[in-house]
């Protein structure tokens, strides 16, 4: 008869290895669960940040609209006038315009046009005979500005001592960009002889 082995049997060795594998699996399972929990936390935080970014973008867009509206309201009494020679104003643009505008626009005024301020654009003075800097004029009263603008539009071409004079609204860049979107539509309507009008605010 063979004598019993003093060492562990093959079965015991296999069992020991299996137990070691089980322990490793448990460790891996725990690690995977922890990673999943961590990832879930990260995903939750990422989603929260994305939502906050989206909310902030909406607020920024709204603030930009409000800012543009306020900018245009602040300019509602303003006009750009282009075409007067540099020396014609003699350093007193407001007084010059008070004297010239009624005749230029063929309107009757009972008292001098009230101008809060008038100045050339901040660009440097151009050389003689070159492009002319626009006058930026702020009228004291909105109806007066509207009356002058309406008269300019009705007359169409304006001339003063051989110089072509142009009068424009002063609008923010954003509003000018939006108005340009209507150009093709307005041209199409004119080509079709369709009368049209725009009411502010308008959406294309």
UniProtKB/TrEMBL annotation:
Name of this chain's protein: L1 transposable element RRM domain-containing protein
């Amino acid at each position: 008869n063979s004598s019993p082995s003093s060492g562990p049997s093959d079965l015991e060795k296999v069992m020991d290895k299996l137990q070691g594998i089980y322990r490793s699996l448990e460790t891996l399972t725990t690690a995977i669960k922890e990673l999943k929990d961590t990832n879930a936390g990260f995903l939750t935080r990422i989603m929260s940040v994305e939502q906050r970014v989206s909310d902030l973008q909406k607020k920024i867009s709204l603030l930009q609209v409000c800012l543009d509206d306020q900018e245009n309201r602040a300019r509602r009494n303003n006009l750009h006038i282009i075409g007067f020679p540099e020396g014609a104003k003699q350093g007193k643009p407001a007084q010059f315009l008070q004297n010239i505008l009624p005749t230029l626009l063929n309107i009757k005024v009972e008292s001098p046009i009230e101008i809060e301020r008038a100045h050339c654009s901040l660009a440097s003075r151009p050389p003689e005979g070159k492009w002319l800097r626009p006058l930026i004029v702020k009228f004291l009263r909105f109806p007066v500005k509207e009356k002058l603008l309406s008269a300019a539009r009705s007359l169409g071409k304006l001339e003063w001592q051989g110089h072509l004079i142009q009068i424009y609204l002063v609008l923010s860049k954003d509003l000018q960009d939006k108005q340009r979107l209507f150009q093709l539509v307005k041209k199409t309507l004119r080509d079709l002889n369709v009368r049209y009008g725009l009411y502010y605010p308008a959406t294309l």
